[in-house]
Structure prediction request, 392 residues.
Amino acid sequence: MTKLARLVGVGVISAQGKGCENNLRGLNAGEGLYRKHTLDNFDEIVEAPYLSAHQDSLSSNNDEANQSQSAIKHLEYLLDCAVQEALSGVSLTDEVRKTIPLFIGSSSYGIGIGEALYQQALKQGEAGTPVPLDGFTQVGHRLRQGYGLLGPDYAYNTACTSSANALLSAVSSIAQGHSEYALVIGLETYNLTTLAGFYGMQLLAPEMMRPFDKHRQGLVLGEGCGVLLLQAAEAGSKGITIRGGASRCDTHSIAASNPDGSAIAAVMEDALEQCGVDAEDIIAIKAHGTGSPLNDDGEAAGMKRVFTRVPPFFSLKSYIGHTLGGCGAIETALTAVCLAGQKIPASAGFECADENLGLAPIHQAQTAGQGYYMLNFFGFGGNNCSLIMHIQ
Prediction:
């Protein structure tokens, strides 16, 4: 019999704070730690907003003599906060830990560390390598060294769907009987390369994110870490289970999915079919909701293609920023925390409906009931992932 993947441990650190309780309070307050950061090496002075995960996360990198160590410590701090919380409520023997597979998703991995090493080399008069490390092994190494997690580890790098695809693979691993447990990690840390890249593409909002709002102007990047511990369970198990989902690639353009919503609708329909769930069974949707015109256009169009009546939907990115490859695990963790508290969160930043979209996110919190929820993640380059969560 196919096993279900039950969520038994959740850990998160984001712009809303450290830990599930602080994040839940932050979602209720609707506040994030917005900062402005100056980007170097442009002809003009460039400042961009950013949602930091911790008060000292960026100021610590100002110590030029120890930039690389600061970057490493910051990455490890975010990771440790979330991993320790996710594992805290589950008794795992050393033997079990040695077998747990790791599914890791991120966009930048160790880019911030690489930037610091490059700058240090240049200051020392060395011929610095612009990207001295890719960082793909950084997270797995830390988890093996610090937590005795010696199972196989898989690194996913599919833009904004990285940790969503990692989660989808973890669910599949449990369903097929490959493992009793699986640990999913979504991580994104501050780095200038990513921030400057999104600025160069003119995708950044000047102040804050307004997903699906008529006056949306783009996204704001953020950092954080989300960790999900899954355990095999039988059908009918109480609690929150990740039923599965679907992943697809859209070749409409190099940057985004077709704004007519066809590709986005296709991945949602696949997810419903894979999980044996009807569209009418979905209670609410955690939208990707970046606040960028084309993404929100395509997502709204896709939902209208799939649902005769679009369920209540919300976006979390105004609270925590767009955490890119980490958002799959981080936003799944936050959604699970909200649903466990019987709450569907409101979409922060939304004020004015866009008549061209023909729908709007909820702007006041609602009561969450038992049933199925859809979580959508759409990536740069057209990689799309849709997941189905069930609470009982």
User: Anything to note?
Assistant: The domain at 4-391 is CATH 3.40.47.10 (Peroxisomal Thiolase; Chain A, domain 1). The CA atoms of residues 360 and 368 lie 18 Å apart. Confidence is low (pLDDT under 50) at residues 57-61. The longest strand covers residues 4-14.
